[in-house]
Design a protein that fits this description.
Strand 7 and strand 8 form a beta hairpin. Strands 3-2-5-6 form a four-stranded mixed beta sheet. A two-stranded antiparallel ribbon has the order 1-4. It has a two-stranded antiparallel sheet with strand order 7-8. The protein contains 21 helices and eight strands. The chain has helices at about 20-25, 30-45, 105-110, 120-130, 140-150, 160-170, 180-190, 195-210, 210-215, 220-225, 230-240, 255-260, 290-300, 305-345, 345-350, 365-370, 375-380, 415-425, 435-445, 450-460, 465-470, and strands at about 50, 265-270, 275, 285-290, 385-390, 390-395, 400-405, 410. The protein has about 475 residues and is α+β, with helices and mostly antiparallel strands. Helices cover about 50% and strands about 5% of the residues. The protein folds into three domains: about 15-55 and about 60-85 and about 255-400, no CATH class; about 105-250, no CATH class; about 400-470, Arc Repressor Mutant, subunit A.
């Protein structure tokens, strides 16, 4: 029988403090989300008040700064103001301007209003329109849509009826809307073109040689359709002017808003030297609410259960406020130090934005420079942007690995990618360069790069293989 007994074991574990947790969370937030988070804290923590501008409203009594030491609390009260050095004259600068635009669904439903459909067909048509994706395609099969319509609209229908209503929608603008795949989308657009030899051949290619076209097997297309190379070229020109994403012609207000970028940093050249500032964001001066501080003072001299609970509540909210404001300060300091380190490392690049001057740089380089953890640098870099005199860039853009040149110098992978892009853009499209030829080209420029590395960089740049870049 196994012996039973008690034993003691000493273990050391590291736990993050509330301040550290708060700081980590705030580090990951871009500017707009930070503004929302600050507003949320003001709404959820009754101990915090937004300070009133006494100069603008001298008659109104503003909440006074309260030191808890006056009320027997040994905890020091933090400064509830986050200072930003580069505050402009505009107290509430607008970073985003949104124009009110009509969504794809609204546009199509407006066109539906001009169709002479009965109420039942109109309901079905609106349901189908609602199922279209952002690019304008209908990727749900009609069989499954019949079940959805039966369940949600209580309308019994069938794929044949849906097909006829879909044909009505496919007649709307922009042309090609409501297609179920790329082939159907292109054919819908060709249907509205003026008849011509090029249009006829383009339709034949899409209907009978779509796979061959995708793989650019031009000689086989000519052989199969019995057309000349010149006729093929004219037909392909007809196809390339078509829009593969008809829904993209209509801007959605909400999608526009999600894609807005607010720079977290602004880099300017002052006397030829790059200088980093952080744009002002609407973080108000925060003060302890006078009423809650007085409540704490009154309750501190009493000993009933209710008063003790009140003191505990106020203290917890005060601690939360202290941690939040201190985390904001640490966030700003960490972001500033990280961006300064990036600019210092890539100094020559930030003078004029020449990609060839980008040095190989990884997170560890900046971590070593700032004395911060790599995980912290990763959080700072994520979803943050810098506005420069040559464009707006995500911070991730400046990080890349390096390769050794023949002269023994280290070259950034971004530099090599820039050379690849430029070389492929300038190639003879009738005889595009293979990966092996690109290797030779880079070698001639002093870069030792393997063929598989060239292929990897080409894929990352979204550039197809030589055969798919070929033009007639």
């Amino acid at each position: 029988m196994a012996k039973q007994g008690l034993s003691q074991e000493l273990k050391m574990t590291q736990r993050l403090s509330p301040l550290q947790i708060q700081t980590i969370k705030l580090l990951e937030l871009p500017t707009l989300e930070l503004q929302r988070r600050v507003q949320q804290e003001l709404e959820e923590n009754p101990v915090l008040d937004e300070a009133v501008d006494e100069e603008k409203d001298p008659e109104e009594e503003a909440p006074k700064n309260v030191s808890l030491s006056e009320y027997g609390n040994s905890d020091p009260t933090p400064s509830y103001k986050l200072y930003v050095n580069n505050q402009g004259k505009d107290e509430k600068p607008q970073y985003n301007t949104f124009s009110v635009k009509e969504s794809l669904q609204e546009n199509l439903e407006n066109q539906l209003g001009y169709c002479k459909l009965d109420e039942r067909s109109t309901q079905i048509a609106k349901f189908i329109i609602g199922m279209l994706e952002e690019d304008g395609y209908l990727r749900r099969d009609l069989e499954s849509l019949t079940d959805d319509i039966s369940f949600k609209l209580n309308i019994e229908t069938n794929p044949e009826e849906l097909e006829s209503i879909l044909k009505v929608i496919q007649g709307f603008e922009p042309v090609g809307i409501g297609a179920r795949d790329l082939r159907e989308c292109l054919l819908l657009q060709l249907d509205v073109d003026e008849p011509s030899e090029a249009q006829t051949n383009a339709r034949r290619i899409i209907e009978d040689c779509f796979e061959l076209l995708a793989k650019k097997h031009y000689p086989r297309i000519c052989q199969k359709l019995g057309i000349t190379e010149q006729q093929l070229k004219a037909a392909i020109e007809e196809i390339t002017r078509l829009n593969p994403r008809p829904g993209g012609q209509i801007d959605d207000t909400y999608n526009d808003q999600a894609q807005q970028i607010v720079p977290d940093f602004i880099l300017e050249l002052k006397d030829g030297v790059p200088v980093i500032t952080m744009p002002r964001f609407n973080i108000p001066e925060l003060r302890v609410n006078k009423n809650y501080a007085e409540l704490l003072m009154q309750a501190a001299s009493k000993s009933t259960r209710q008063e003790k609970e009140a003191v505990s509540f106020v203290k917890s909210k005060l601690n939360s406020a202290k941690w939040f404001v201190e985390a904001l300060k640490q966030r700003q300091k960490t972001l500033q130090n990280t961006m300064n380190a990036i600019v210092s490392f890539q100094y020559d690049y930030f003078l004029d934005g020449d990609e060839t001057k980008l040095k190989p740089m990884v997170l560890k380089n900046i971590a070593d420079s700032t004395g911060l953890d790599i995980s912290t640098i990763s959080r700072v870099v994520n979803c943050k942007y810098v506005q420069t005199h040559f464009g707006i860039y995500p911070l991730k853009y400046f990080f890349s690995e390096g390769l050794m040149t023949k002269s023994g110098e280290e070259a950034s992978t971004r530099e090599i990618k820039a050379i690849l892009t430029e070389s492929i853009q300038g190639e003879d499209k009738h005889k595009p360069m293979t990966d092996e030829q690109l290797v030779d080209l880079l070698s001639a420029k002093g870069y030792n790069v393997a063929r598989r590395t060239v292929a990897k960089y080409r894929d990352q740049l979204g550039i197809p293989i030589a055969r798919l870049r070929k033009e007639i």
